[in-house]
Amino acid sequence: MTDSGLRSFVARRLLLGVMQTVAVVLLVFALTEALPGDAAVALAGDQPDPARIAAIRESLHLDRPAPERLLDWAAGLLRGDLDTSLTSGRPVARYIADGFGPTLLLASLTLVLLVPVGFGLGVLAARHEGRLADRLISSVTLAVYAVPEFALGVLLVTVLALRLGWLPPTAVGYGTDLLGHPAALVLPVLVLLSRPVCSLTRLVRAGMIDALASPYVAQARRYGIPGARIRYTHALPNALAPAAQQLARTVDWLLCGVIVVEALYVIPGLGTVLLNAVAERDVPVVQGLAVVFGVLTVVLNLGADLVAYRFAPRAGVAA
Fold it and tell me: What does the DSSP assignment read for 22-76?
């Protein structure tokens, strides 16, 4: 891989990332415009007066044409201004800051466990391809992946929290101070870890098996290179390209607010903020969260592409 080739790839991906970000902004605005109901009517109360509704629409600039509001909103985004909430008047950035802590904590704990467990099980299965350990790991990961997060969460609450009483069933009463109550994090992290660890394990296993069957590994064996060095120095890096992209998608999934898990365990993260904003038809909050989620997706996929290109430049992969 030459420096010019890497620079060209980075330039292409950056340009694509900018185009994707613009597309995200346009799509978010179009989708929120298509939401049913009227924010002014919702803010006017149970017995809305037409004059009050008209005044609210004017104060919130909802009476202006959509293209004008899009341009004003996009200009604010360029300045780092995500607008203010319709229901509370608080800056949208404050909503995101309040919900980002719990979501980031859950994502970090999940990743800390995901990387060693996923890679470890994948390498173990590849080393024992076709034998008992491989069949057991493959069967268990397939079975766990088939269980929806909500069903697994309910099962864990029923068994570990309600029947055995080992763990709290939800995070109610703990607020955002989840780190001070680690027991409340065990069940959510287990649910968040369940499906990603299965995907990562199977990807690493497949990549390791393909790499170990390649001609250059056979040549390394003929030269008498130890098996451990072949596995971890030659074969494992070739499994990192798809694994890096899977990790990027997992981080994106975690940071963008795992709505089901946060709702099930009553965790005040970004997913809960989004649910409340949709219920209240707080359009600026919905738009701000959607843009943040979209930009995170673009950035994480860009990073995954660079890692994948670094380890497998011939693939020219893109997440």
Answer: HHHHHHHHHHHHTSSS-HHHHHH-SS--HHHHHHHHHHTTTTS-HHHHHHHHHHH
For 136-151, the DSSP string reads HHHHHHHHHHTS-HHH
Cα 230-231-232 angle, rounded to 5 deg = 100
C-beta separation of 286 from 278 below 8 A: yes
CA distance 234 to 223: 14
Backbone torsions φ then ψ of 37, nearest 5 degrees: 90, 180
DSSP per residue, 216-261: HHHHHHHTT--HHHIIIIIIHHHHHHHHHHHHHHHHHHHHTT-HHH
Whole-angstrom distance, CA of residue 204 vs CA of residue 210:
10
262 vs 271: CA distance, rounded Å: 6
State if pTM tops 0.90.
no
Q: Residue 259 has which token pair?
A: 């709505």
Mean pLDDT, 10 residues at a time, over the chain (319 residues)? 68 81 82 68 65 69 76 82 80 86 87 90 86 91 88 89 86 72 87 90 84 71 69 69 75 74 84 82 82 82 73 49
Q: What tokens were used for 90?
A: 């608080």
Closest CA relative to residue 253, chosen from 167, 193, 170, 185? 193
Alpha-carbon gap, residue 202 to 129, rounded angstroms: 12
CB 102 within 8 A of CB 257: no
Pick the closest to residue 172 from 276, 87, 272 (CA basis).
272
DSSP-assigned letter for residue 84:
B
Q: Please tell me whether residue 91 adopts helix, strand or coil conformation.
A: strand
Contact 271, 255 (CB under 8 A): no
